[in-house]
C-alpha cells in the first residue's frame, strides 16, 4: 500500500513534549522526513524503559538534525525563547503544540490546584504556543503551520476526565478561532484528536484494547488502542502541502471511537 512521503528537508519543526509518547513519535517522524526538529520539553530523557536515547539524539543517530530545549509550556516566556532560538535554523515552519499533562480524578474530587495545573500546560500552553509561533512566522514573512494535540475527550464525556477534557475542548476552540483569524495571513492551524494510545502518560494502560479500560471507563473502540507511531502520519499530512486547503480542522485518530 502506498504511503504519504512528504519532504520536510527545508523545514524547522518545534514539537513540545517530544521526549515521550505521541510527541516523541511525531518528532521522530518529522526527523525521518528530513526536518530539523526541536524538542521543547521539561525533561530531556524518555520515560519508557525500552527507550534510552533522548529524542533529539535518536534523530541524530538516524542521520537527521535535532536539538533539545528545556521548556515549560505553561510559561509563555519559555515558549517565546525556544521559538526565537529556532531562528538559528531558519525559524519555525511547523509548530506542534503537543505537551500535556493528565491526571485521573473524579469530578467531585478535583482541587483548584489540580485544575490549574492541567489548564496551564494543556490549554494555556497551546494558546500561547499557537499565538507566539504565528507571530514569529509573520514577523519573518514566512507563514507556516500550527498543529495542536487535542483528544477524543474534546467531545466525549468520560469518567474521571472532567478537568482534562475541559482543556481539550478548549484546544478545539483555540484551533478553530486561531485558524479563522490567521487564515488571511497564510497561517494554517489544525488539530489531531487521539483516542486511547499506549503512552506513559496513562499509567497502567497497554497497547491491547481490552486492557485499556480502567475501572469506570469503556472506550468501546471499533478498532483497538493505538501505538504512538500510528498517529504521526496525521501530523505530517497536516503540515504538508497536501493539506494546503485544510485549516480549523480536527482530525480524529481514535480507532473510530468518536462514531460510537
| Total strands | 7
Distance between the termini: 28 Å
Percent helix, as a range, is: 25-40%
Strand order of the largest sheet: 3-2-1-4-5-6-7
Broad shape: globular
> Order of helices and strands, N to C?
EHEHEHEHEHEHE
Low-confidence stretches: 201-218
Count of DSSP-assigned helices = 6
Task: Label the structural class.
Answer: alpha/beta
User: Approximately how much beta-strand content do the residues carry?
Assistant: 5-15%
Average predicted local confidence, pLDDT: 87
Determine Rg (CA atoms, Å). Answer: 17 Å
Q: Summarize the main sheet.
A: 7 strands, parallel
Task: Describe this structure as you would to a colleague.
The chain is of the alpha/beta class and 260 residues long. Helix content is 34%, strand content 14%. The chain contains 6 helices and 7 strands; from the N terminus they run βαβαβαβαβαβαβ. The protein has helices at residues 21-32, 55-61, 76-85, 112-139, 162-182, 229-239; strands at residues 12-16, 36-41, 65-70, 94-97, 145-149, 188-194, 250-253. Helix 1 (21-32) links the parallel strand 1 (12-16) and strand 2. Helix 1 (21-32) crosses helix 6 (229-239), helix 3 packs parallel to helix 4 and helix 4 (112-139) runs parallel beside helix 5. Residues 201-218 have low confidence and may be disordered.
Amino acid at each position: 500500500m502506498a504511503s504519504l512521503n512528504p519532504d520536510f528537508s527545508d523545514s524547522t519543526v518545534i514539537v513540545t513534549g517530544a521526549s515521550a509518547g505521541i510527541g516523541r513519535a511525531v518528532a521522530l517522524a518529522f526527523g525521518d522526513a528530513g526536518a530539523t526538529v526541536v524538542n521543547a520539553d521539561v525533561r530531556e530523557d524518555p520515560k519508557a524503559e525500552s527507550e534510552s536515547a533522548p529524542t533529539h539524539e535518536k534523530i541524530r543517530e538516524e542521520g537527521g538534525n535535532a536539538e533539545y530545549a528545556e521548556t515549560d509550556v505553561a510559561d509563555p516566556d519559555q515558549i517565546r525563547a525556544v521559538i526565537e532560538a529556532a531562528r538559528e535554523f531558519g525559524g519555525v515552519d511547523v509548530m506542534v503544540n503537543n505537551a500535556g499533562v493528565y491526571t485521573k480524578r473524579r469530578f467531585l474530587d478535583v482541587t483548584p490546584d489540580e485544575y490549574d495545573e492541567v489548564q496551564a500546560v494543556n490549554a494555556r500552553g497551546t494558546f500561547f504556543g499557537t499565538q507566539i509561533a504565528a507571530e514569529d512566522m509573520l514577523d519573518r514573512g514566512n507563514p507556516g503551520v500550527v498543529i495542536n494535540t487535542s483528544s477524543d475527550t474534546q467531545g466525549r464525556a468520560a469518567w474521571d476526565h472532567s478537568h482534562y477534557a475541559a482543556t481539550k475542548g478548549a484546544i478545539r476552540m483555540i484551533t478553530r478561532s486561531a485558524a479563522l483569524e490567521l487564515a488571511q495571513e497564510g497561517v494554517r492551524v489544525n488539530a489531531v484528536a487521539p483516542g486511547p494510545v499506549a503512552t506513559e502518560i496513562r499509567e497502567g494502560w497497554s497497547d491491547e484494547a481490552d486492557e485499556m479500560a480502567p475501572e469506570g471507563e469503556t472506550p468501546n473502540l471499533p478498532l483497538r488502542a493505538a501505538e504512538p507511531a500510528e498517529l504521526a502520519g496525521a501530523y505530517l499530512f497536516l503540515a504538508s502541502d497536501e493539506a494546503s486547503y485544510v485549516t480549523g480542522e480536527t482530525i480524529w485518530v481514535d480507532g473510530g471511537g468518536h462514531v460510537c
